[in-house]
Amino acid sequence: MNSKKLTLFTLIFSILLFNALSLTDEEALSLLFKTQGTTAFYGTDFTANYEVVQQKPGEGRSRTNAKIYRRDSESKWTILISSPLKDKGKGYLQTENNIWFYDPADRRFTFTSSKDKFQGTNANTSDFAPMHYTQDYSITGTQEVKLGAYDCVLFELKAKSKNVDYPFIKLWVSKNDGLTRKKEDYSLSGQKLRTTGIPSYQKIDGNGSVYQIPVSMVIQDNLKGKKINGKMEYEKTVISISNASLEKQDDAVYTKPYLELMSGK
Question: Residue 249 phi/psi, 5° resolution?
Fold first, then answer.
């Protein structure tokens, strides 16, 4: 076989192999359904301690500790901040499709949004809630890729409406378990705004099911940074999750009076 025929054969074989490995539309949608399912707890309540560490280049770190309660089946969640001392008693509540921020200093609830930053960090309040990829986005492309040791599907997603945090998303999902390994958020013009990495997960049992939640999440703001010793460094927020529980909580936990009561403790 001469070199031209060999080159043609290699090209054809590569195309056939690529097509054989590519996901069908149905397979891609099924995997995306599975992925968003791993971010939710519809059959149980979810409670955990969150440590949120904000890192600003050249300025050091700030730390916020909070307890989070979620009832995803009713789209309700409560966040109660325990430290630092100046923020103790502050909290967030989502109920009836509204998000409220409570400040015990003036005992007032202020309407906020899922797009708003959590306590001045690089995390949005929506980062603490379930994702709805198949509802909010259309799949515009898929590609099978390697991400470190993981065999992943790279999804390119375009928002169906303006009621989302970001109009474009790139999502790396490991094929064997549907877990999100990396996410990039883009503006309407295509500028990369944030990069989120989830290096590892932890398993918790509840109601006969096994759930996997991140051990930690690293969120990098691709717009905020400065050069340190000649190297560009960006703001990062590291969210660590511990003491996770799937025990059912009292209905009162997801109400304004609960935040008011707990703010004084």
Answer: -100, 160
Identify the helix (H) or strand (E) that includes residue 48.
strand 46-56
Question: What does the pLDDT read at residue 5?
Answer: 47
For 132, the token pair is 């709805």
pLDDT digits (tens, 9 = 90+) for 36-71: 999 999 989 999 999 999 999 989 899 999 999 999
- Per-residue pLDDT of 131-163, as tens digits, reads 999 999 999 999 999 999 999 999 999 999 888
Bridge-partner residues for 139, per DSSP? 157
Query: Could you write out the three-class secondary structure of 167-222?
Result: CEEEEEEECCCCCEEEEEEECCCCCEEEEEECCCEEEEEECCEEEEEECEEEEEEE
Residue whose tokens read 């600003």: 56
Q: How far is CA 8 from CA 3, 17, 221, in A?
A: 9, 14, 45
> Is the distance from CB of 117 to CB of 237 less than 8 angstroms?
no
Alpha helical stretches, state H, the chain: 3-21, 25-37, 133-136, 256-262
Question: From CA 108, how far away is CA 249, in angstroms rounded?
Answer: 25
